[in-house]
Structures are given as C-alpha cells and as structure tokens.
Write the structure tokens for this entry.
Amino acid sequence: MALPEAWLESRYALVHGEDSDGRRAAVEAWKAVHVDPEWEVFSFTVCAEGCPWAEVLNALRESAPLGADRVVLVPQADNLLEKASTLPPAVKAALQAPLPGTRLLLVARGALSAGSGKILGAKPFSEWTQQGRVLKVGGLDPKEAAGWVEATAAAMGLGLDPGVAARIAARLGGNPGILRRTLEVLGLLTDGRNISLAHVDQATFRLGEQNLFAWTKAWQGGAIPAGLQTLRLALEDDPSSGGPLMLLGQARREVERLCRLAEARRLGQKGADLAAALGLNPRQAFLLDGYVRVLGRIGPEGALRLLSLVNQTDLDLKGQSLSRSPTPLVNLTVALCRAWAP
C-alpha cells in the first residue's frame, strides 16, 4: 500500500478505517519515519487502549532524551473521537498547536465521519484533513474489488477459478482486510488447490446478508460485537450441529496451529521448519507471520488455554457436557477476538 508522503511526514496524524491490515501497515510506516530506534525505549510511548485524553496529554508532556522527540501512539482512539463536542479545550489547543518536541499518531479502528457535528467535520481535524494529516484505510470501489482479489491471490500463491474473485467481492464488499482474510481461510480450506466456486459455496451458510466466513472474519479482526452477532445467527440457522460445528472446526484448526508453533519454537525450530510444523505447504507459508503475531501476544500458555476452551465447546456442541447452554460458544468467541485483535 502506497502511503501519502504528506501523511507520513506529519508530526501529528490520524489513521482510521476498518482495514486492520492497512492500519497496521500505516502505523509501522509512520513509526519508521518518526521513532528513532536508538532512543525508542526512552522516547516512544504507547497509550493503553480506550485511555482518556488525560493519559494522552500526560504522555506528550513526558520528557524525552536530549535531541529526541517524545512520540506517542494511541492504538485505539475511537472513544476519544466519537464527537467533536467532547474534545476538552486543553486537548483541542494541543492538537491545533502541537507541543514542541512531540509527535502523535491517533488510530481509530472504525471509519470516522466528516458530517456536521462529527469529529472530521470540526476543527482541528477538519484542518488536519486539508493538510493531509488524516489517512483512511479500506473501502475499495466495487469495480476494483474483484481485480484486487485476483492480484492479492496471485501474490499469496493462490489460484482462483474463473468467477471466484467476482463472487468473493460481490458477497464481501470492498474492505481489503476482510477480503485478504477470506483468501487466507480459502487457502487453508483448499490446501493448495485452485479455489473454485464450489469451494466458496461449500464453506457458506447464512450469516446475515454476507455469507462467507463472517464469524472467522470477526474474531480475526478482534471485533467482539460482530463475532457475537454472527454466532447468534449461526445458532439460529442450525442450532443442532451443522453451522456451529463448522465454526468450531475453523477455530480448532487455527488454535491447534498456534499450539504447534509454540512447540516448534520450544524445540528451536526456525524458518521453513516452523511452517512445516504447522502443516503449511509452501503456498501457505505467508500465513506464518499471522500466527507468530498472535502467539507473541498470548504466549504458549494462552494458546493452551484457547485449545482447552475449544475442547470444552466441542463437548457442549456434541451434547457430552451437563449443560447445553450457548455460554461456552460465547466465551470462545470473546477469547478468540481478544487473542487475534490487531
């Protein structure tokens, strides 16, 4: 993804949009420009998710080593950017006239609006937009989405039968992150074979209006509300087994790969050996980075806890536990969302 130079060079900047992959790439690119690796430990601050504005201002006011700027990253600023009217005067002043020797990147996981009374429609963010300091990620034009799917699949080493790219784009829309994760799931499903229309339909059951891997997309994007909503729809469609077991099978495959990665690392395996330990063929090796990121977040103990939760849920679905309550499925959904959150 080519990023605008004006945005990359902005000392105070904002990135927003639903494309988690695009957000992550943008944040890393901005950090590469603004964070001095030699002084990162002493000058770079990452605020807590959902933090108040007071924490952001305090982080900006912390002293930095002589000659280095204080750089502050707010990784989930959605709660800070809900309404223009909620901006405290001290915050608005700091955003309009940045504190000397400071740099700030605000990250919103949702798409922000520039409408009347909305955050991008009022100062200082309306001025930021004019200055190129606001970047939105995601949202391919419907006419571009199918071509984007074909190009991304080729880069991943995945083969698509005629019509597959158009069907995926028609069902899922133009969010690059969702489309990319869909291709990853299809790549696992087909195990290196060309992805056909039958493969797409085989993994499809009704989940609202969008038919393909909605639950998996939700927890791989860390979206708890969407994960719980798609889980509810799956249970409504087929409360006995069908859809829920399909969901559980996808979750088990991903969690077992995390556990195999943890074991392979414990044994000192590296590079291609890690991919082989996970059962990934050469065309699926690109998926390894995602598992490494998640395992780095939750650790081997967290992976084992997830596997235990999957097993408990499996017992519940098959009627071997004392309770047939949907609670284990809800708990599993929330746990997966938190583990895979970008």
Confidence is low (pLDDT under 50) at residues 204-212. The longest helix spans residues 288-317. The first strand starts at residue 12 and ends at 16.
